[in-house]
Amino acid sequence: MRPTIDASPLVHALPRIQPVAIETSGALGASGALGASGALGASAGSVGSVAPVASDATTIEATRAPGSPSVLFVDQSGQLGGAEFALLQLAGHCAASSEVVLLSDGPFRTRLEALGARVQVINDARVSGIARQASGWNCLRVLPGMIRQIRAIAARAREFDVLFLNTQKALVLGVLGKPLHRKPVIWYQHDILTRNHFGRVQLSVVKWLVRFAVDQVVVNSQASARSLAALTGIAADSVPVIYNGIDAAAFSHVEGAEGAEGAGGADIGALRRRLGLPADAWLAGLFGRLAPWKGQHVALDAIARLPEAHLVLVGAPLFGEDAYAQRLREQATALGIADRVHFVGFQDDVPAWMSAMEVILHTSTEPEPFGRVIVEGMAAARPVIAAAAGGVTEIVQHGQNGWLVEPGDVGALADAIGTLRADPVLAQRLARQARDDARSAFSVEQYLEKMTQAIRQAAR
Ligand code: UDP
Ligand code: GLC
Questions:
Q1: Which ligand sits nearest to residue 380's alpha carbon?
Q2: For 378, which of 10, 169, 400, 434 could close a Cys bridge (C-beta 3.0–4.6 Å)?
Q3: The domain at 8-244+444-459 falls in which architecture?
């Protein structure tokens, strides 16, 4: 969940939503069948900036696999959040027959281009800066910029079969241009749509766009689907759940961590030294952007109760939460644990960092829509302690493949860490099951297959 846009003044009657006919998937052990997918290949990329460039539709026609629809992906962020990692895999897979429009520049563009994706940045500083709680007046002020972006996205969309919108701001701008581009629209909903996170105006914009203009919605968890159903009245079980896919192989082949399940593999010391971590300390790792609802402050309070444990915070404030990051440092100092808390910033090599931990924590204080970091910790064969709300309970079964605690409950989190620390056999059993479940239920293959199928369906 990240800042997005309110655009009620722009909402007007648009074509009606099509019924969705993709089978939904269930949680662990109850996967849905979406049928065969098409391989979409990979190709070279080019960069655009600010204004739309001329069509390159002929190149796309020449390189894409027969029968697979061409796709214009749109994402509002240049930063690497979970929604962007999900799109990275898909856009890389579809590179030969797609293009990505970003509404802000940043490291996400570089990562997409490295996979051969064609990327354009269509940026407007005012629109990017609008807050999710923005008033109607603020929306009017950004109207000219929004109209420019709507037109620019529509101009690109005309060259493709399907418009795939990956974030809420992309949803608003992509859908409002539908009278101009007239292409089917698919939205991958990554958020739990409640007032805890989003303004009233924003939720109502999403509600009306989904009801009247989006051809197909797919969601990242059943929890996200339920929030959509509550908002729009659409039946939750009619919305396909497509879980993110995690590359388990990347998490199981970390140099220096082979064979290390749970606490203490033979070469963990060397791995930790390479990463600049204390070789002999007992390390709990918390991965994710620094943001109040991700609950890093809860983890600090819990670690303060466990004198021998260290906490490694991996991640940075990606969406303007710098004040929270500063408060976390002050909290660590005030608690007298600054020497046991390691702020290491954003890291690219998450598999290595996860493999260096004894336990992985997830501490979101609000329901997590999905939680890639949880599945990644599982794929790394580490015991995961997670906050039991939202999509998390579709991933973790308490005492089977991980450990669940009430969100925001410092005592319960400290107890859980203490329990797994005191019982390495239990920790290892959870970690083994976790690794197997991550492989079987959250593979990249299932993700790409279902997504490809959903895109084909939207193109019809
Ligand atoms: N991540 C990363 N480097 C970091 C911290 C996080 O690459 O330093 C990645 C992490 O591996 C995960 C993603 O960021 O794939 C976060 O996704 P998640 O769904 O857990 O949370 P979101 O930020 O999307 O709410
Ligand atoms: C969003 C959600 C996160 C989810 C990710 C990928 O960023 O906050 O829970 O894992 O999207 O779907």
A1: 1
A2: 434
A3: 3-Layer(aba) Sandwich (3.40)
Q: Which pTM value belongs to this model?
A: 0.87
How many angstroms separate the alpha carbon of residue 386 from the centre of ligand 2? 15
User: What's the CA-to-centroid distance between 113 and ligand 1, angstroms?
Assistant: 19
Q: What is the DSSP letter of 185?
A: E
Range list for CATH 3.40.50.2000 in the chain? 8-244+444-459, 248-441
pLDDT in tens, 297-313: 999 999 999 999 999 99
Paired residues of 368 in beta bridges? 390
CA of 99 to the centre of ligand 1 (A): 23
Nearest CA to ligand 1 atom 17: 82
**Alpha-carbon separation of residue 206 from 10, 22, 62, 76, 391 (angstroms):** 12, 22, 36, 15, 20
Tell me which architecture the domain covering 248-441 has in CATH. 3-Layer(aba) Sandwich (3.40)
Ligand 2 centroid, distance to 1 Cα (angstroms): 7
Whole-angstrom distance, CA of residue 253 vs CA of residue 263: 16
> Of the ligands numbered here, which is closest to the C-alpha atom of 108?
1
| Range from 135-144, 203-212, 428-437 carrying the lowest mean pLDDT | 135-144
Q: What is the number of residues in the chain?
A: 460
